[in-house]
Specification:
Radius of gyration of chain A: 21 Å
Structural class of chain A: alpha/beta
CATH topology of the largest domain in chain B: Rossmann fold
Oligomer: heterodimer
Largest sheet of chain B: 7 strands, parallel
Shape of chain A: globular
Distance between the termini of chain A: 57 Å
CATH superfamily of chain A: HUPs
Largest interface: A-B, 87 and 95 residues
Number of domains of chain A: 1
CATH superfamily of the largest domain in chain B: HUPs
Number of helices of chain B: 7
Helix content of chain B: 10-25%
Structural class of chain B: alpha/beta
Strand content of chain B: 25-35%
Order of helices and strands of chain B: EEEHEEHEHEEEEEEEEHEHEHEEH
Largest sheet of chain A: 7 strands, parallel
CATH architecture of the largest domain in chain B: 3-Layer(aba) Sandwich
Helix content of chain A: 25-40%
Strand content of chain A: 25-35%
Order of helices and strands of chain A: EEEEEHEHEHEHEEEEEHEEEH
Number of strands of chain B: 18
Shape of chain B: elongated
Distance between the termini of chain B: 51 Å
Amino acid sequence: MPNIIVLVKQVPDTNAKIVVNGDRVDLSTVKMVMSPYDEFAVETALQHKEATGGEVIALTVGGAGAEKILKDAKAIGVDRIVRVDASGDMDSNALQSIIAQAVAELGGEVVYCGKSAADTGAGSTGPGVAERMGWASASNVSSTSFGDGLSVVMPSGSGNAQVSVPLPAVVSCDKGSLKVRKPNVKGIMQAKRASVDVLSIEAPPSTVAIVNHALPAAKPAGKSYEGGAAAAEVAHLLRDEANVL
Amino acid sequence: MTQTIVIAEMNNNAVHPSTAELVSAAKTFGGEPTLVVPCTDANQASGAAGMGAGNIIAAKSGAFAHYDASGWASALDGVIPMGTIITGASPQSKDMAARLAARRNIPVVQDAVKIQEGKITSPVYSGKAMQTVSATGPVVISVRSNVFTPAEGGAMDHSVLAADGNVATAVQEFMARASERLDVSEANIVISGGRGMGSPDNFTHLEAIADTIGAAVGASRAAVDTWDAIPHSMQVGQTGKTVNPNLYIAVGISGAIQHLAGMRSSKYIVAINKDADAPIFQHADYGIVATWEEALPVLHESLKGMMD
């Protein structure tokens, strides 16, 4: 009966416009949601519990505002919701150190997370936490089956491979063919009443610091054409002007 | 001066040409980078000759036969000196970079597209913004391809070090990809279709052009969500794959912010759309206002003529 932990992160809605104020991204008016790949991690964690029993704990790191996504996870069916209280920017070393300590404290035996978060796109947390725990890891997993160990489908070379992963392990989840379950009314009511366990964990100092944010440089205006016949000219420009063919 | 180490980008046990770009990125820190080639046979390191490194080390280990994050990170950690480490930014290399950094309790910075005076810039929010960071100690940096000019010259010969890796997972079976087509994340040219293609059957027109110019076929989220025949593996965008090919051709794609986030860093962008007001045109180097039915046959014929 494993303790199954799923890592969730609050990020700006992927349809949101990102604004830079001064030299920092300004998220004050942006709708915040659970990072999309984390939804697949929650689904996989719930399927693991259904297959083997155990308890699913959703874990996030952040301020009180991040509890909304924990409630969302609770409404879908996780058993416990936990937040490590933290604020400000952290580098990967500080963040993973906190998560690894929390996973140890919660007695986790398997950890699921999204393959990357929609804000940084880094995908560092899963493998980094696994290394700190001394566990196996498998990343960008599109399908998981559960037993004493796991059997996952993940990219390998130019195709995929079926890979056996011994537990304990960290698995980062891609979309695959997963259909994410939706909360029902009962779940939503339970989530409203659910309490969040708050942990306090010391982070090591960050040695990477944000200097600034900027919007990507605007592209100079391109050439525009009317009508399909122009495709012939564009094809030749791709070869002779852009040199990409 | 920082000691920098480059880990060669490997593809089927061969040194990938993009490794020379990584050496170039490492040289921004000054000095002569050490290029480490993870290999099962030291001869595989000969492909790293003339890529601009100060010296080349063939890190030889059975652990490098298949990718296992634990095995690769532990084997590399045993043979590479302390310092700042540069890797490629393929999904596998980013994964390995993160594990290696964690093993050394140093931070990792992923997807660098610029390194200047020790400051590292990466896209965040899928390219909707750029983030620049500075590091006060050693760090592992994964570097996007098609950004740095490949380095040349330097060491031709390699020394060999035996590496021991702690492999945790086991491959049970390699599975052929459902499609023999190039993956969008691997291709130098991507041609993508959106809902403007009208039907998934019409993607055959994109495939025909892709076959002519060696491109991968991608799709917008709208296309993937609308048609079951278009798999998520083809999706380019913030919740799909982020691509930065030399050439991106968007056909019948309006340019939702979600899609732009996944392809805006492409070197050249061609947009074909019947709606002159489609946002994709603001990002296109070459925009053609036309239906795909009008434009694609002309494009295909021209490209065929040029490839012959």
